[in-house]
Amino acid sequence: MKEKPAAMDSSPNITSLISDFITLLQTSGKSREVFEHVGPSHSEEDMFSYLWSLQEAHQSLTPTPVSAKKSQDIAESWLERGEKELFQGNLEEALESYSLSILFAPHPPLPGGPGGSDVDRLDCPDRNNNFDILIADEGKEEGRRRTYRDFDLLARGYGGRSAVLFEAGHYRKCILDIDAASNYSADESHREPLAERRAKCLARLKAEEENGKIPAKKKLAKLSDSAGSEAPELPDPHPAIPALGKVVRMAFAPSQGRYLIAGRDIGPGETVCVEKSYCSALHAQHLLTHCCVCLLRSLTPLPCPFCTAVIFCSEACRTEGLAGCHWQECNILPTLVNLDMGANSLLAYRIITHTSYATLKDLLLVLKSEECTKPPETIGFDEDGMYISSSYRPVYHLVTNRKQRPPTDLLRRCIQAFVITKLLLESGRYFVKDDSGAFDPTLDDIVLVGSALVHHMMNLLCNAYAIGGR
Ligand SMILES: [Zn+2]
Ligand SMILES: [Zn+2]
Known about the structure:
This protein is mostly helical. The protein has helices at 14-28, 31-37, 44-53, 55-60, 72-87, 91-104, 131-136, 141-144, 152-167, 171-184, 188-210, 315-323, 325-329, 333-339, 343-355, 357-373, 392-396, 407-427, 443-463, and strands at residues 248-253, 257-262, 302-303, 311-312, 432-433, 437-438. The longest helix is centred in the middle third of the chain and has 23 residues, at 188-210. Residues 2-7 and 117-147 have low confidence and may be disordered. Bound molecules: zinc ion (2 copies).
């Protein structure tokens, strides 16, 4: 979708907040004092605590909440646009318009999901992976529909998109949208044409299968979802660093830190590293084109039931996202995006929420003491001598270059951490205990998390990797 992220609006971004902060500091005569507390010789805790203690910081650096709410009017206008584009045969534009209509249309909470009811979870087919079940389970279809029939605008969006997909020859995807349309439609008269289209899709799929025919070349083929590829097998893994092959060796030099060297000649195409990222986040400009869980591009996205800031590629990703990473960010992501602090702030937010407050509280003191006590070449390795990519330890111990940074750069990292901490508090979904839900964090809790964020705003600049693609 070409639309800018739904969250972007005219509320102040980070540059404007910083400008207000500087003005307030000048007015109160504290411009100098700031750099007595923020500089390379100060710890992350000291710098963050000082900033958090400043009334001027709270006054100027508290972000204005931005919402990305559903909108009947916007959904209707995209629906009309979709109908027009479809009538004119512009399938690509029609598909985008209907997807935007689905994104903005008011949506019921998902059964069994956050904010949902106790209704049993629908037997939802996975939109990408279980097409054959769709066809085999035709008789059960009636039972899995008929749950929310008062979301007609949503139903019309799915119905319109199914017409585009039918025209383009994407029959399996078409059936999924028809089923969604039937599920949310209150209007009996809409269901008849949908049922006819569904029957035609099944007939064409059956004919293709029986005749062993290669499906006709589909229109919109270039818009097909990007395929997730299986990770390659890593031959001969390193005994202490399972993500690397044995062929690679880690070395250390005081001037360069840790680095890898090849133990022998490595041939072209030889696999030497297979590593799942600890955490990932989309660049803001891809939030409406790529799934916020698996990061794949999606041709027929599913919406978040609560916001218009992200999309999901499948029911599986939507379930996973709403139970984890997206649920934690759903009510503050539009504000975070609007601040325009760059991809690292989105990633830092996800690292902190993925790690959880409880883990951070348990681990942070240990990790900080390791920084001072362990030989530098062993930093990031656990007590068993293993370097585990899924653990927070190696992520925390990535180099920050704090001592080489000028005070103005450090102040900027502290300000970014300050703003993200404000959003963690605002979300009400981070400072939680398993047994008793959300709690009011103490000043120590806030400084613990804020200083970890300062740390990540520095180490991500030196260590985060971006992947570009369609
Ligand atoms: Zn996905
Ligand atoms: Zn959301």
